[in-house]
Amino acid sequence: MTDSNAADDNWLIQEDEEAAPVAGSGSPDQRLWRVLIVDDDVDVHAVTRLALRNVSFKGRELELFSAYSGREAYDFLRDTPDIALVLLDVVMETDDAGLLLARRIREELHNAIVRVVLRTGQPGQAPEQRVIIEYDINDYKAKTELTTQKLFTTVISALRAYESLNMLERSRIGLGKILAGATNLYQIHSLREFASGVLNQVSAILDVGADGVLCLMQGDTGVTSVVAATGGYAALSEAELMPTGHPLWPTIAKAFAEKKSQFDHPANVLFIHTQENREVAISVTPPWPLAQIQRDLLEVFCQRIAAAFDNLYMFGQLRKAQEATVVALADLAEFRDSGTGGHVRRVQMLSSSLAQRLAARGVYPDELTPQLLDMIGLASILHDVGKVATPDHILLKPGIHTAEERAEMQTHAAVGKSILERAANMVDGVSYLTYGAEIAGGHHEHYDGNGYPNQLKGTDIPVSARIVAVVDVFDSLLHERPYKDPWPHTEVMTYITDRAGKQFDPEVVAALLDLIERDPTIGRTPD
């Protein structure tokens, strides 16, 4: 053996022969590579730190941590994120402390990404072939063979493998967020809510609290409107148009002009073109330049969002068609009973407000679903649609009905429910027609079971019908009808409160009183 070879065998001594690249300043936007040295020999920590003092990989220097036992190392790994490499001694507090730690890292901490390199001064204590097969480690080195150069090679190889695995894991997590986020966005009906959701999902994919502004270009006019904004740009959401003097504007304009995303830190603009020829720009300004993996994930997300924007538009058109159908049905019923004036519109507004107040009071949480709260107002205008089947001489009679006429009049509840149920069954899921059928069939049921048409009692009556039952009577008593003069407001409230628990649900009456206390003008405004 030559002198040079003999010297090379001296572990971590020949610093002059180190081939590691000179450490760069490191990018301020990237964390250091975290390396944990686990050994019960203080000198091993010292020489390892000396050998790795100038090592860097891809412009990122090393951040070295020390643990002096397997137990201490386990606690450190459990509590410290992003450890890329563990340089692990085998024999410490016990002969197999390092092997036990290697197993606990994988099986108890469920950390499959951190690279584990065993270093042992007693190879016979843990034979290499058996250890490599039985333990999930990434390299096995005898301390006598680890020159500075070989340690450098081992560390860089481990960091490269860690980076690849970390990118795969980040891709998996990012794609999961894209799938989950895009799915949630399909549940949003408002364009502004949708846009805000998009910005939240972009922030989640970037894993930073990114400021963002989403802009929508209206057709070919070249006018760019702000749809949603977050963080430091939240004030822009108050402006209809994107200010051309804003620092983000040049990059946004370039994205629209070139019809492609722009990544020019600190301004990054994602360009989205939908099949309905809508062009959207999402500008995000994270504190550091986006890595390629983040750009790729955002581009995938943009492809999903393009379809979501089109679906939102189509959903909006479908929703408008449903609303128009409901209004047409209500207008048809009110056309024959012109004496009701604006009754159905007042019922619509008050039913929606009353449902919201009930929800705010925390009652009937299982029944007052977001769908019901969203739809009850419009659905309520269908409460008397069954009157289309009531003969004119009964419907328009100015005086008191006979018993026979009253019985004929009361059939409108069952008729309305039947008509609307048949229509609702033609549409999958819950719609305005679904709640309209509930309301039409149940708004004349009484809380004590003495109503019609089915003598339902208490909460067997759908909550939508219990709400409209109160609103319908409240508004009808306050306004003139062919057969009655309007009642004074105080008498109406006395009647409503006296009938709580009998004709009306007490919780709904209490919510109405709450509403009127908050806004005494309810029911007092002229037609």
| Amount of helix | 40-55%
- How many individual β-strands? 11
Overall 3D geometry? elongated
What is the beta-strand fraction?
Answer: 5-15%
How many helices? The count is 17
Overall average pLDDT = 81
**First-residue to last-residue Cα separation:** 108 Å
* Largest sheet report: 6 strands, mixed
The side-by-side strand order for the widest beta sheet comes to 2-3-1-4-5-6
What gyration radius follows from the Cα positions, in whole Å?
A: 36 Å
Order of secondary-structure elements? HEHEEHEHEHEHHEEHEEEHHHHHHHHH
Low-confidence stretches are 1-29
Structural class: alpha/beta
Write the SSE topology:
Layout: H1 3-9, E1 33-38, H2 42-51, E2 56-57, E3 60-67, H3 70-79, E4 83-89, H4 97-107, E5 115-120, H5 128-134, E6 139-142, H6 148-185, H7 191-206, E7 211-217, E8 224-230, H8 249-258, E9 262-264, E10 267-273, E11 279-285, H9 292-336, H10 343-360, H11 370-380, H12 392-395, H13 403-424, H14 432-442, H15 463-478, H16 489-498, H17 506-518
